[in-house]
TrEMBL record:
Lineage: Bacteria, Pseudomonadati, Caldisericota/Cryosericota group, Caldisericota, Caldisericia
Cofactor(s) for this UniProt protein: Mg(2+)
Stated name of the protein: Pyrophosphate--fructose 6-phosphate 1-phosphotransferase
Origin species: Caldisericum exile (strain DSM 21853 / NBRC 104410 / AZM16c01)
Similarity comment text for this entry: Belongs to the phosphofructokinase type A (PFKA) family. Mixed-substrate PFK group III subfamily.
Compartment(s) where it occurs, according to its Swiss-Prot or TrEMBL record: Cytoplasm
Residues in the signal sequence: none
């Protein structure tokens, strides 16, 4: 068989181990693996290269993706789906493995409905995909954020400050929640819960009085008021500076409590670096499973982790169904607001 593989959407640690898992398992079946570059863009523009064991054997600990990635969606490009199908035909691709988050998997589902033999491999550092317990990339990015929080603790203590750390996660609070719990933050703000700033400040004041500093983790997805300004630059352009969530929360705390406050945003630092052992194993398992699904003819599905098993679940049940932090997790988070 000739199996195509691509990585789409935002990168995250674990993509390379997943590609490696695909290539190693494909070798057992005598398959050829063709890696399409830059996600769906590679299939629109026919950019590819063959992958051998030698190409992937050492990439288990590399961040990023050797296949590059993009957010190109063929369904938003003129004749995009036709071009994808044409490239697959031209290269005699029998089946396609699409490694990606919700956008990539939604495209995979639509192509499947057009007759493409496709299997999905879920990934996202946001951990917000339904029908899978976890996605690779998540635990590594939380690990990086926890390390940042530990460093902020040192400086917060020395200067007797309150420091706010903003983490990624889109509309889902998983990254903030896990970072805050694992890094012993004093308050966590997630998009799934309406912020009670009075309660937060009251609590931070108490913690500050007890230990001389406090830490807050905030998810990028929380809503803050949009700012308008009448200021203009030297060319007369409005100086509409978008304030980060972390700056908004830090200002609010310092105004309410009159305590020296600082803030930081970890941003894309969270998306780089070697995957943790957990993510390496998870990514490898789903990569291996995807090839097995191809050989079982299990198309239109993705390789998901359920308990300790990797199972095939219909893309239809996962695509477009964001998994948000639920009541049970919020209750757990509250245990640490003491
Ligand atoms: O979905 C993953 C993610 O890292 C989000 O947490 C974040 O909002 C977004 O991607 C950033 O995307 P980009 O790399 O395009 O700036």
């Amino acid at each position: 068989m000739r199996i195509g593989v691509l990585t789409g959407g935002g990168d995250c640690p674990g993509l390379n181990p997943a590609i490696r898992g695909v290539v190693y398992r494909a070798f057992d079946f005598g398959d050829e693996v063709i890696g399409f570059e830059e996600g769906w863009k590679g299939l629109i523009e026919d950019k590819k290269r063959q992958l051998s064991i030698k190409d992937v054997e050492e990439i288990i600990n590399y961040g990023g993706t050797i296949l590059y990635t993009s957010r190109t969606n063929p369904f938003k490009e003129e004749h995009g789906p036709e071009k994808v199908i044409e490239t697959l035909k031209k290269n005699n691709i029998d089946a396609l493995i699409a490694i990606g988050g919700d956008d990539t998997l939604s495209v995979a589902l639509k192509l499947h409905k057009l007759g493409v033999k496709v299997v999905g491999v879920p990934k996202t550092m946001d951990n917000d995909l339904s029908q899978t317990d976890y996605t690779f990339g998540f635990f590594t990015s939380v690990e990086v954020a926890v390390d940042a929080l530990n460093r902020l603790r040192d400086t917060a203590k020395s200067h007797k400050r309150i420091i706010v750390l903003e983490v990624m996660g889109r509309e889902a609070g998983w990254v903030a929640l896990f970072t805050g719990i694992a890094g012993a933050a004093d308050w966590i703000l997630i998009p799934e819960e309406k912020p009670d700033y009075d309660k937060m400040c009251e609590h931070l004041k108490k913690k500050y009085e007890e230990k001389g500093y406090a830490l807050v983790v905030v998810s990028e997805g929380i809503e803050i008021p949009t700012e308008t300004t009448t200021e203009v630059d030297e060319f007369g352009h409005a100086l509409l500076q978008k304030r980060g969530v972390h700056e908004y929360v830090a200002d609010l705390i310092s105004k309410k409590l009159g305590i020296s406050t600082r803030s930081a945003i970890i941003g894309h630092i969270q998306r780089g670096g070697p995957p943790t052992v957990f993510d390496r194993i998870l990514a490898t398992r789903v990569g291996v499973k995807a090839v097995e699904m191809v050989h079982e003819g299990d198309f239109g599905k993705m390789a998901a982790i359920s308990g300790n098993k990797v199972i095939a679940v219909p893309l239809e049940d996962a695509a477009g169904k964001q998994k948000l932090v639920d009541e049970e997790w919020i209750k757990f988070m509250k245990v640490f607001e003491k």
